[in-house]
Amino acid sequence: MKWDEFFVTGEPMIYAAMVSIVLVSVAIVAGLTYFKKWGYLWRNWLTTVDHKKIGVMYIIAALLMLFRGGVDALLMRAQTAVPDNGLLDGQHYNEIFTTHGLIMILFMAMPFIIGLMNVVIPLQIGARDVAFPRLNAVSFWLFFFGAMLLNLSFVIGGSPDAGWSAYFPLASSEFSPTVGNNYYSLSLQIAGIGTLMTGINFLVTILKMRAPGMTLMKMPMFTWSILITSVIIIFAFPVLTVALALMMLDRQFGTQFFAMQNGGMDMLWANLFWVWGHPEVYIVILPAFGIYSEIISTFARKNLYGYKSMVVSMVAISLLSFLVWVHHFYTMGHGVMVNSVFSITTMAIAVPTGVKIFNWLFTLRKGKISFTSPMLYALAFIPIFTIGGVTGVMLAMASADYQYHNTMFLVAHFHYVLIPGTVFAVIAGYHYWFPKVFGFRLNEKLAKWAFWFIAISFNVTFFPLFILGLNGMTRRMYTYSASTGYGPLNMLSMVGAVGLTIGFLLLVYNIYWSTRYAKRDTTGDPWDGRSLEWSTPSPVPEYNFAKTPVVTKLDAFWFSKKENTSLTEGEYEPIHMPNNNGQPFIMGVAFFFFGFFMVFSWWIPAIIAGLVVLGTMAYRTFEKDHGHHIPVDEIERTEKALRGEQS
Amino acid sequence: MKAKWFLISVFFTLSLILSGCDNSLLVFDPKGPQAKTLSDTIIFSIVMMAGILLVVYILYTFMLVKYRASKTDENYEPPHEEGSKWLEITWTIIPIIIVIVLSVVTVRTTSEVENKPVAYANEEPLVIYASSSNWKWHFSYPEEGIETVNYVNIPEDRPIEFRLYSYGPITSFWIPQLAGQKYAMSDMVTTIHLAAETPGSYVGKNSNFNGKDFAHMEFEAQVLTDKDYEEWVEDVKETAPALTESEFDELLEPSVLGRKTYSSTHLEFRPAPEGEHAGHHHGGSDEETDTTHDMHMEDHK
Ligand code: HEM
Ligand SMILES: [Cu+2]
Ligand SMILES: [Cu+2]
Fold this sequence. Notes:
The structure holds two protein chains of two kinds. Chain A has helices at 3-6, 12-34, 38-46, 51-80, 90-124, 133-152, 180-208, 221-253, 266-299, 307-320, 335-348, 350-364, 373-396, 398-404, 408-438, 444-470, 487-517, 556-562, 583-599, 603-622, 632-642, and strands at residues 575-577, 628-630. By secondary structure, chain A is mainly alpha-helical.
């Protein structure tokens, strides 16, 4: 292989990216060395098994990926803002929309949610940690290095370019001969294994580690949504694992599962992909519903309306989510019968979703609504997401979909669902729980500016796409001629995308500003919250709860405040905690190199890296590590300091 | 009040689209019965959905205006409400009814557009094979014995049956003003039925991403009067060259091409993947009676 095949060459934008990657890496290494932070980084972050820190790392990584995916989006919008634009060539555009989709869904939305659930779930259920803390760290590092592997493709070897759905035979080695889709199969595989383990971990955590008295029907709604999401993950991700493994075999070992010759079935890939892919969109949307439920009831100062029907509708959605995958290829020609059945199952999802919308509206009724920044996102979600929902019903009608399929109408629809659904929710959740983790609030004024920029620009960016789709503009086209008349609306959409960018930049600036200037919160409960996480001091100590709370009803903390009762009893006792460990990180690194060598079919180094992976697992099975105890006097000291009391 | 402004702007945009439909947007400007059915279906669904939006938006605005903290008394304590069985049943039943209505419409219109247009039920359709290769469309007219590349001429007021397949990645054949799209795949033939009722030139395209020059994969669908169509066919037969196998192989090479016309088709030496040449098919097709063509690849030497 020649060097210019190895490194991506020939475009100033990519050279600029390479230079900036090198510069940033050098700056990070130099900075860490200069400030003598290597030890700190290793001890406090890279080896941590604390669910809160793992959650924070997930969120930081997800924010970085939001920017990577966002730059992609901005470039795409810039390219299509005017007809016959020459900013990007076809190949570059194809790589960008592919990685944009992949990164946004798999390396931004899902990890952001997993980050929030890591931070919040043990706190909401009154637990000291997740069920398998070390496994949790493994999950994180697999996600992280999977994401890094995909990002590396941009400068080394070329990114995948067959769309995030990677349909065969286009994604086969015959039609996509570069290593791009090898990166696809391997980076998603590595990250996907991590996600599957997260699903198992949180299912067990929620089922086994709830505080005494917290029955299933007394769990906060966010915990419920994560319980259901974990179940979906456990059923959906093995399908992805198998599909990606077959893809790798097809591309790198010459099998013909999906490729064209010798009876390979192109549509088998499409089926497997969407059997995972459709539930995947519920993996990112159900937790969002949970987050909104928490936020809306907190800031309307009311308990959640129709708690039971909320739970029932989430269960219904999770079941239906596995029965609708064919709506992604109504146009495959399988006839009226099949299309009708899948139209009906798809539309059926609108019913439980509608129930939830009305329950939220009635939670607001007779409430006392305060417009904090998390609440603004939750409130904006309702009208915008409803547009996404009703256009989803329109798309579900098979006949009509013959006219929308693969057009900008579809692009508008799924952004109308994903952005107010997932992205607004994670931003809202992040504003909401930020003080819990860091002990201070983000600046409300800046947060509100960011909100208005994002909410308004979002509609400016994506509403025009509905109209463009109905006018026949297909998705994934890098250019079009002026005679199509697509120009003006695309330009409008570009203006919106710039507004969104400003909004997201304000969001990050707010972190900087608030870290420096915001007032510290010593109450642990800045929003007058309802669930258990607000009963701990902020920032939450390593062991979460000094004494295990005992729960008798839903919104236990809220009632304990109103009735002036205590959730805990008895004396402090020594707390058992797991030790930090570097093995998950090392395993992640080994997986990264394994994936990288596999991408280039360098078998010997790949086998060696694979052996290192197995070695870390073997090491773990022989290791004796019983964790450590935190003594009572240390707990007493920590609690007093965090509550702002003098000892 | 921001919510109100939002509401108003959404209303205006919606009415703008709805009023714009009859003359501008391709999907709302049908030129044949199949596309007309789809356009009507879409407009019907938009009206239904606008109704739902309206209900949600009115409730929403009401809640936000009435129950904001700044308007309520400082000592006001919101009540504890578990929910209401009747209200929750109401907002489950009504959506179920809506979904049932939409399902009925979907099943009817789907079967309508998947079959020959009703008004032409007794006429013999003109069969045209449309196959894709990177990044062009090949149209073979077995009846007339001619073939074109990147444009297709069809007679008006006659049912047309497009049979689609692909040499390479999946593509999706779409003439928005005449009919909805359908995939063209390498291992099977799918069918689009349509009829065109107004002579003119319409955009056709591939709407399924298939690599580098996907954006340029457009063709012109020209609807001609019967007389013009006959003349064109005669003209092609007399003046255009025959399509040889080697020339066809060259055409299959990845490239973007202009128009081509031939006085013979590639079906003779490169038959479509149907009947005994089929790879597999995806089942479920109602009219499909041929069950012999699963996995017959190996019979085809
Ligand atoms: C932040 C502003 C965003 C903008 C301006 C934006 C814009 C775009 C554009 C222009 C396309 C490609 C259209 C095409 O050529 O087909 C696209 C595709 C896509 N976007 Fe976004 N997007 C944004 C955020 C997101 C988010 C947050 C998600 C997911 C959580 C997302 C998921 C996707 C997916 C899955 C695709 C399809 C990729 C494919 O066709 O393979 N986007 N987006
Ligand atoms: Cu789906
Ligand atoms: Cu097929």
